[in-house]
C-alpha cells in the first residue's frame, strides 16, 4: 500500500480505535504513527534497528517487531521491543514468499520469554487455533480467516473465548 494511503487510513482509524478503547498500531511507518497519534508502530526485520525506531518515536509509544525464528524473537526482546509477532506459523496469503515456520518453536519461545508479549501470527484459522494454543501460544493474530468469515463477529467471539479459557 502506498505511504499516502497508509497515512490517510491511519488518520481515519486512530480516532475510531481510541473511541473503542483499543490500541492502534501502525505497520512499518514510525513517522505516520507519530503524526496520527497512534499507540505504537510495528516494524519488520528489514525496517531498521529497534534502537533507531525507539529514538525516533520516544518512550511513550509501543514498538513491536516481526520475528521468524527463536533467535530473532530473543534478539527483538533483548533490543527492547515491547512485543513481538512470531510467524508465520502456517502459509498465508498476506505474506507471499515467506515460508511457514510451523509450531515446533512456539513453546520454546514462550518458555524463554515468560510473560513477555509474543503474538503468534500467520495463517491461523478456526481449524488450527487449538493446535497453536496446545503448543503454548497465549496470544494470536488472526486476519484473513476473520475478514473472510461469514460471521466475523461470531468467529472473533469464539477466538476470544478460547483464549480466555486458557
UniProtKB/TrEMBL annotation:
<dbReference type="Pfam" id="PF02581">
    <property type="entry name" value="TMP-TENI"/>
</dbReference>
<keyword id="KW-0460">Magnesium</keyword>
<protein>
    <recommendedName>
        <fullName>Thiamine-phosphate synthase</fullName>
        <ecNumber>2.5.1.3</ecNumber>
    </recommendedName>
</protein>
<dbReference type="GO" id="GO:0009228">
    <property type="term" value="P:thiamine biosynthetic process"/>
</dbReference>
<dbReference type="GO" id="GO:0004789">
    <property type="term" value="F:thiamine-phosphate diphosphorylase activity"/>
</dbReference>
<dbReference type="GO" id="GO:0009229">
    <property type="term" value="P:thiamine diphosphate biosynthetic process"/>
</dbReference>
<comment type="pathway">
    <text>Cofactor biosynthesis; thiamine diphosphate biosynthesis; thiamine phosphate from 4-amino-2-methyl-5-diphosphomethylpyrimidine and 4-methyl-5-(2-phosphoethyl)-thiazole: step 1/1.</text>
</comment>
<dbReference type="InterPro" id="IPR022998">
    <property type="entry name" value="ThiamineP_synth_TenI"/>
</dbReference>
<dbReference type="GO" id="GO:0005737">
    <property type="term" value="C:cytoplasm"/>
</dbReference>
<dbReference type="GO" id="GO:0046872">
    <property type="term" value="F:metal ion binding"/>
</dbReference>
<keyword id="KW-0479">Metal-binding</keyword>
<feature type="domain" description="Thiamine phosphate synthase/TenI">
    <location>
        <begin position="3"/>
        <end position="144"/>
    </location>
</feature>
<keyword id="KW-0808">Transferase</keyword>
<comment type="similarity">
    <text>Belongs to the thiamine-phosphate synthase family.</text>
</comment>
<dbReference type="InterPro" id="IPR013785">
    <property type="entry name" value="Aldolase_TIM"/>
</dbReference>
<dbReference type="InterPro" id="IPR036206">
    <property type="entry name" value="ThiamineP_synth_sf"/>
</dbReference>
<dbReference type="InterPro" id="IPR034291">
    <property type="entry name" value="TMP_synthase"/>
</dbReference>
<keyword id="KW-0784">Thiamine biosynthesis</keyword>
Amino acid at each position: 500500500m502506498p505511504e499516502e494511503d497508509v497515512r490517510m487510513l491511519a488518520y481515519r482509524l486512530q480516532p475510531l480505535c481510541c473511541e473503542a478503547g483499543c490500541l492502534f498500531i501502525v505497520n512499518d511507518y514510525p513517522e505516520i504513527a507519530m503524526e496520527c497519534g497512534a499507540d505504537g508502530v510495528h516494524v519488520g526485520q528489514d525496517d531498521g534497528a529497534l534502537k533507531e525506531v525507539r529514538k525516533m518515536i520516544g518512550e511513550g509509544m509501543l514498538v513491536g517487531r516481526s520475528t521468524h525464528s527463536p533467535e530473532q524473537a530473543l534478539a527483538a526482546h533483548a533490543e527492547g521491543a515491547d512485543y513481538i509477532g512470531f510467524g508465520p506459523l502456517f502459509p498465508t496469503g498476506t505474506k507471499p514468499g515467506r515460508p511457514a515456520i510451523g509450531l515446533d518453536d512456539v513453546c520454546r519461545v514462550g518458555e524463554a520469554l515468560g510473560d513477555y508479549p509474543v503474538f503468534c501470527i500467520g495463517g491461523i484459522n478456526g481449524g488450527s487455533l487449538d493446535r497453536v494454543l496446545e503448543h503454548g501460544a497465549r496470544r494470536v493474530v488472526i486476519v484473513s480467516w476473520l475478514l473472510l468469515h461469514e460471521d466475523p463477529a461470531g468467529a472473533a467471539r469464539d477466538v476470544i473465548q478460547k483464549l480466555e479459557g486458557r
